[in-house]
Amino acid sequence: MSSPAPQSFKQRLSIRIAILCPRESEAQSIIALFDEHHIDQSHGRTYGDDPNQYSIGTIAGCDVVVAYRPGADNSSSGHIAKWCRKSFTNIHLALVVGVCSRLHDDVDSDILAGDVIIAVRLMHYDQRLDKHSTISTLPESSKGKEVLEMRYLLHKSKSATENPAHADQAGAEEGNERTGPKKHYGTLVSSSIYVDSGAFRSVDKTGVLGVDVGSLDVSKIFPCVVIKGIYNYSDRHQKPAWADNAGDLAAASTKVLLDDWKTMLQDGKSERKSLLKTLHFPALDDRENDILEQNPAAFAWMRQGDLEEDTEISEAQKRRREEWDKVKEWVTSDEPIYWIAGNAGSGKSTFLARLLEKWPSDINVVSHFFWELGSSKQKSFKGFLCSLLHQLLSNDFTAGDILREKMRAGPGEVLDDWDEEKLESILLHYRHNAFRKLYIMIDGLDEAAAGDVEKLLDFINSSATSEFKICVLSYPDEKFLEKLQAHCVLDMHEFSRPDIEAITRATLEKVVADKRSGFDIDGMVLDIAERAEGVFIWGLMASRSLMRDMNDGDSHEEIVEELFKMPVAMVDLWNYVKKQRAIDSALFDKYLSITLDLLLRHRSRLTVFEVMMAVKPELLEDYVVKNKPVSEADLRTKYQACKRILERLFVAIFNVEKRNGVAKVTLAHYCVQGFFRRTKTGRDLWKPPRLSEKHMRILDWKRRLASCRFYPNELVNLSRLLTLLQEWERDRPGDYPPELIKQLFEMAWRQIWRGNLLSTLEPEPKDDLMPFPRSNKATFLMEMANLHYDFVCDAVRTLNDSDEHDTMYCVLYHMCTNYVFENKNKALDCIFNILNKEYNPDWNIAQNTTADCFGTPWVQFLLLIINLPRSSVEFKDTAISHWVSLFIKLFLDRGASLEMRLPVVFWPGGGPFTGKYAKSFYGLDKSKSRYLYLEMNVKALIELIASLRKQSGSSIHRGYTLPDVQSYMRVVGFKGGADEKISLVTYETYSDLLVEAVRKMCDVELEDHSQSRKQMSERADACTRLMEKFAEKCPSATEELCWKGTPWRLYT
């Protein structure tokens, strides 16, 4: 059988399956079955003096490496595996393919020479001690999805027998009526050396199917499946001639196994996708994702590894370690239910989210986070069942196979709204048929809907087993203590207490270090942690309140007395703090609600000035929208009052710190966010205002503009401000109609016109020759053209003539370069309107700017199109050709020139590009050592673009005809290598030949990628040879090469 030609390169790290063949004949049989051959990208390099031979290819969609050793026999399998592990370091599964012996010829047995044995269990026989033991070659502890998938496939196929190849490939025993070989699943006796006849008699009674040599050594190196063709009987009928046929059968069975693997993974994919849609509901994953986003530092010791083993630790840390060990013990124990109880705000949800993050990826685990404040599905028994089944079908490939029939719609049944009882029966069906152990993690059982708590308790108690384990986290309710049949119980306080102690100590020690040393910090830390009962925010509020008392000069005794007066319940503590500080309740609630709303719903950091403007909306309107005179002194007084309120009244909730001269407000600790967002007590205290997202963003826009005016020295990034508005418009287009966007722009424009908003927009280094507006107003308008061109046109009329001319050119130029791919229709409309105002498409503003030359917008658009990589999505999109046609027609209708000449740099490359044209101001890729300097007119440039677009299966000549203008292209010079000088092309013949080479490189077929690469490489080589040939005959440039008086270095 002839081998297909190599198709592509493969990195060794991408190969995860090895096929180990002790004999070269079996390796060749496997290689002959390759669907595709690959070239080893490491160019055959191996580890040290690796004696193995390797071939990389694809069988049934699996990338594999075949490893063998010429001249070796079966006993070499372990050595082949050892070297393969060193040279291919990412192998997860090995298939050992070869031949074996049947124990003896039994006329009553269905296992005959010529059959194939597939084994995942090997019996190790010690001939010296006459003892044997059995091992699994695919142990459950093995890492990697390949092992799990193969274990399940063989689990399903164990009792099946099938013909792996044609019956005439190996002979059946004479007199036997079978027409062909069969496949058998079982155990092989395996040893590192050949087993003698006495050993055969000893192991015969164990039920093994055959005798193998060498595979046992492989199983110590890789998880593996042993696939062996029977070529003789150990007690008689030694027929070595059968060995090659048996090896061919084993190779054929290997392909069948890989085919079955692929089929198993693909079967039911579309059906599973449909089922997932019916199970999904909005906010399915929001709760878990939200928890970790809001608490990135919580329970960091779990993420980083507990470092307490090697350090001196506190009693609380010691108890935490002991409880953590109990959690880990439960994972491997037979105990079905584990209950973690803790108060609201003690970090139960965060602990579970962190636990799931830490959980090994190969363990089968699903979870559900009940949330009282969430949607009905987030807190119902039905939503719980949908969530678990959705995760099982998404993450466990065996679930689709197990549940597909059970979940299939019956006659007249529509699976658009699952019945609760049906969902429960499906989940229990999975439990009865599960291939591996499942862990179910349930958070917030006490937050489930009132009518569903009893259902959940019944489900947990009745369904949990040692293979269907359930971990529950909830409030320590007496009802759960009585009804939850959990023998393993953990108080969440044991996990959270060390972190509360750390928060408290960090807070108090800072004050003591600054003020006095007579405080018993250790005692206060322990007292606060004890009274907090695991609730983070209680510990934070208590420690920060005491910190303020210490700053006010209170004695140690007074502070301790104050601590023990503080109520344990959060609501009572809140009211106690307000009463002690004689705080106006309405004022307190207003500041708390608005500041939390800004920080939790909109931004993680804001300024004191923005908080002031948020609590005084009339002042904001006067300051930004109405532009009423506001006394600077009055504004400063209000600002200082707001700052004092935040610092004194909310010391336990907010931090107020000055950064870069501006007072910023942030949350005091991550637990503040969790408490107010996720607990009912926190939400009741927060009382978030019912403003829509749209109104929140509009107010935020006004506050940002107000800040620009209040902090004139703090330059605001205009680009970021406008991008923010673009994001809002994109995310919620219904909330941001054009008239509203225009209104917000006008607010910003008024601030710029008055000089309150300064620009920080600067050309990037790579764009230092890009046309750029010279005034702050023009800069803003150019940036805004991307979002709202109509407003730009109105605003431009308010500029002076020079600025208007400069701005309109920059807008036009901007639209003709990279922006066109971001919004084609808007760019086309913008260009159309500018050209309709009688601006020239060949407009070159060089004389009106400080830079030397930018080229015309018309030319830059054409250079952008020809610069598209041929492998890019934009290039392959045939709709692009229609769009390019519209642009070209628009420019031609407005009088764009085809005769205009331009300098272009081209380098011949063998990669996926057609040869790249350097824009005259963007510069040349210095890594390319060979390139040509060309002068061409626009007509020639369009012809090259047409050639490229034709090869993509489309045409740009639609709806217009090019004027009858002579195409022009000439090679001015070239550089033949990194160390070569520039050669000047003085002969027209040389130029014509090089131009023809360039045109050919733009005319490579795209249908066959590998063939086009080869063709491109050949044509690039031809161009390079011409350059080398002409370099000997062309004069070298003795001075700097120029084009129309401008040095070529500005283009290269």
TrEMBL record:
Domain NACHT: 336-448
Segments of this protein annotated with the region Disordered: 160-184
Annotated InterPro entries: NACHT_NTPase, NPHP3-like_N
UniProt keyword annotations, A-Z: Repeat
Transmembrane segments: none
Protein name: NACHT domain-containing protein
Organism in which the protein naturally occurs: Fusarium equiseti
